[in-house]
Amino acid sequence: MITWRRLVQEDFPLLRTWLEQPHVALWWNHETSAEAVARDFGPAARGEEPSEDLLVFLDGRPLGLVQRSRLADYPHYVDELAAVVPVPDGTVSIDYLIGDPGQVGRGLGTEMIRSVLERTWEELPDASCVMVPVSAANRASWRALEKAGMRRIAECELEPDNPIHGPAHYLYRIDRPGT
Fold first, then answer.
1. All structural domains of the chain with their residue ranges
2. Which candidate, 134, 120, 116, 108, places its Cα nearest to that of 27?
3. Closest residue by Cα to residue 152 from 174, 137, 168, 129
4. Quick one: DSSP state of residue 81?
């Protein structure tokens, strides 16, 4: 069973451990000092940032992290994506990771994404769709999105999260059910 709650400061050591894992660091090019984690994740944890950092659990044990945000809260992201495809009002985006390397490759990323999508429709009634840009090189990530029901709507060039990856990205979308 997948559940989650908002990330809190006491979770930062666990998050730091996850960000240091090679399978995460490859895609989440993130500084991992305690200060950097507090700097970058503290505002959302304290409610000072409009995005949500969600600590995900599998059967009560920490599994990963999902970042969920309304794109309208980040105009530069809207502009970046709108240069490729129309971005409807109410668009939400997610980013995600599985922290424990022993849980990777078991279909849990897909389940985590499905769960977040279902709850997004419940928790954010103004959400019209979810759009997710993903590096074309990150096959595991875009396959998880596809298995969770998202469809590829574009291929584009975007600034990569990790400079070792090229700018090639796929853009995925799923619309609110019934629309």
1. 2-175
2. 134
3. 174
4. H
Compute CA distances 83 → 1, 40, 78, 136, 142, whole Å.
38, 27, 9, 18, 21
Tokens of 72: 């309208």
Output the pLDDT for position 166. Answer: 87
Can you name the CATH fold of 2-175? Aminopeptidase (3.40.630)
* Bridging pattern class, strands 129-135 and 168-175: antiparallel
In whole angstroms, what is the distance from residue 111 CA to residue 98 CA?
Answer: 11
Q: Which amino acid is at 138?
A: N
Which residues, in sequence order, are bridge partners of residue 61?
A: 58
Give the separation between CA 42 and CA 63, rounded to whole angstroms: 20
Joined together, the tokens standing for residue 162 give 């990790």
Sequence-ordered alpha helix ranges (H) in 46-168:
75-82, 108-123, 139-147
* 108-137 tens-digit pLDDT: 999 999 999 999 999 999 999 999 999 999
* Averaged pLDDT for residues 6-21: 97
pLDDT at 29: 86
